[in-house]
Amino acid sequence: MFKPTTIKDIAKELGFSISTVSRALRDGYEISEETKKIVMDYAQKINYKPNPIALSLKERRTYSIGVIVCEVANNFFSQAINGVESIAYDKGYHVIISQSHDSFEREVINVKHLANRSVDGLLISMAAETTDYAHILEMHNKGLPIVFFDRVIDEINTHKVTANNFQGSFDVTELLIKNGVKKIAHLGNAPHLSITKERMSGYKAALEKHGIAFNEEYVQYCHHGGRKYDEVEEAVKQLVTGRDKPEAIFVSSDRLSVGCLSAIKKFNPLSKDILIAGFSNSDVVELFDPSLTCVRQPAFEMGRLATDLLIQLIESKYPVTEFQSKTLNTKLYLNNKTLSM
């Protein structure tokens, strides 16, 4: 039967007392630097890891972080999770990942399940269907550290990490306009989501800057965030089969971009006469047909920063009253030979 190495084993091997080894591993001030080095070098040599159960009993912490995203298979979120893990594991925390699939009911279940597992904190990107935040407010009010990333809410005062959705949307819409495109439709996520509002604002601002009137008929929302393909298909149908067909569609999320590309081929067989641009972190976006000019978010960096802020909350010895809202820049990638920067 496997038995992990304990502090007692290290003490016996090195000829130190258990208390000396324990204090050396904690970098205690009462232990000499020479002794600390001997203990730390040996611990590293044998790949010693503290027993998480013993630590949790002693410190009333589990050294685990819960992460709730809409879908791990989503390119943006898989990259963000890589960023989360790069910080968490380096600082001795385990990561427990849950998927909401943009469902309110599943998000509620996930939040309660992770809290019942006594995670030390939560990283959350809101589900598209969530408009009632009582389940998160309850945990926040009980003192559970929570940090939001990507899809955030104003109702809870805590750290938040987002991309510059306004600027990303403005940049891609302006790119289309500068290439002579005037009729630009917009396929958006659930209208109440923070990212949807910010991206709509950027889209409108670019139109206004170039003297193009905003056309309500050119806007469709997917309230389930692309979880229900029929909804995406119907939204695209409304855009491309109307009397005044758009020349381009700006799509506001990764999952919707893929759904839009599939649907547009069904309702507009000559799909190459409609340009597609939108948010996507896909690593194979250049292979899409029709091609997709995309706004890429710094997903990995967002995950790292959100995790770092969460661990600061978890490990703070005093109540935190000042919170940060971090906004990271997006990048525009041109994948259509008919467009130019």
From TrEMBL:
Single GO molecular function: transcription cis-regulatory region binding
SUPFAM superfamilies (alphabetical): lambda repressor-like DNA-binding domains, Periplasmic binding protein-like I
Presence of the UniProt keyword Secreted in the record: no
Domain HTH lacI-type: 5-59
Recorded superkingdom: Bacteria
InterPro entries for this protein: HTH_LacI, Lambda_DNA-bd_dom_sf, Peripla_BP/Lac1_sug-bd_dom, Peripla_BP_I
Pfam families: LacI, Peripla_BP_1
Keyword set, alphabetical order: DNA-binding, Transcription, Transcription regulation
Protein known as: LacI family transcriptional regulator
Biological classification of the source: Bacteria, Pseudomonadati, Bacteroidota, Sphingobacteriia, Sphingobacteriales
